[in-house]
Amino acid sequence: MRAFMKRRLVVFLLVCSGVGPPAAWADEIAVVLSSNLGPYQAALAGVQEGLGRSVPVLYLSNGDISLPAGTRVVVAIGGKAALQIQRKDVAMVYCMAPGMFLPSNDRKAPVVKIYMMPPAPTVMNTLKEIQPNLRTLGILGLSEGWGPFNAQMQQLGGGMGVRVIIDKMEGSDDLPDHLRALRSQINAIWIPPDPRLITSHNFNLIKEFCSSNHIPFYVPTLELVEQGATASVASSFADIGRIAAQAAKDLLAGAVKETQVYPDKPRIAVNMASASECGLKLSPELLQKVEKKIP
Fold it and tell me: What is the pTM assigned to this prediction?
């Protein structure tokens, strides 16, 4: 009897502490990563935290990404991972895939996209808060996928007294000419998380252009602020992973309301040296909202 009561007590304590047998859905969710790069690993950590337990994790670099037999939902981290999911009967959540939009009409199960950044109203309002004298914002782009988002930024800017110039390029070789054409028209530049645009060469070219013309350079990730851009309005990779985890659980429960989900918590980072160089005056109220200040 004493042994029996001891086992009952152990089970009770495990349940109360949240540690216990895996949930029924633990074997029904799998994660596939494009690679083991740091940003993908951060998103994976967010997925695992959001799920609250371990699930199968597969890497494209290992070659075999055959999903476990009981998989009902796959979380794809990275565009390459999303493109490699062959099973059309498995629901999919994909994230960390900027500029990619996968059609769902050829699949038998739902597809949910998690964006890498907050929605356009949040981005536009925050940029205006960072720079109250923002009059004309230049947006550079290469990938077609960011057209709707950029157009929304343009429409929102018009309602805030900010003229937004969308400068769509055919290729990276056009960047110097486009920057020269924008020089006399804008007092800030913002770029979306467009992997075709954000190469090391292009980033340095835009950064040097903004520095020499003393205008802010706004970017979609903290990492780019650490490399010298002025400020970012972004979401952390871990936040994106946590949102993907919730979407996966919602898919299993049949409770999905949105097939396109934006992170709802903007994270502001500012490079103080760059801000000073371009004459950006940051209000005390804004500085209280800045999560990361780079000297």
Answer: 0.84
